[in-house]
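TOPIC: backbone geometry
CONTENTS: sequence, structure tokens:
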Amino acid sequence: MNVIATYRGATEPADLQTIRATYPSLRLEPLDVTDTAQVATLAKKLEGTPIDLLLLNAGIKGLSPQDLGSGIDVANMQHVFLTNTISQLKLAEAFQEHVKCSKRKQIVAMSSGLGSISDNTSGGSVAYRVSKAALNMAMQEVAVKLKDDGVHVLCMAPGWVRTDMGGSEARLTTEESVAGMLEVMNKREQLQTGGLYDFKGVHWQF
């Protein structure tokens, strides 16, 4: 298995270097997903390279609090939307041919249960919620457009995970969340393309 991982910034992150020391086939490429020129350059550099699984996992929460009572910062909303939604759609567009020519033909976007409109009964985190709801629609569009090419698209809700964003009080470890998501991804033929599923395989309504 060959994996291409991207990173922001001018230098390779130490954690990715550590992983590569164990898995020498890991390929690292610099990429700011919000920079469309960089996205196009990398897509051109990888032209002809099949990508079995295109994982779109960029995501930021933005400023907090960001609610109707505390004031909506337009610049913050735009930045979150650019990172969480627009950039992911542009990546799917830029690398669609790489996915089409692969064997697996799968695109997975990291979404969130907070992006479910029907499940929003508590409010809060409006920039993040709106961006993830829009991401779900964007991936549904990708699913419709690429269905005839045999490409399967999934939006994944990883759960509340102990990451920099999730915090130390989150219920899940990264290992638990990733193991669950991989199991769901491998059942793609049983799942609705473009649908939103959590790490347990539960189908969430938009």
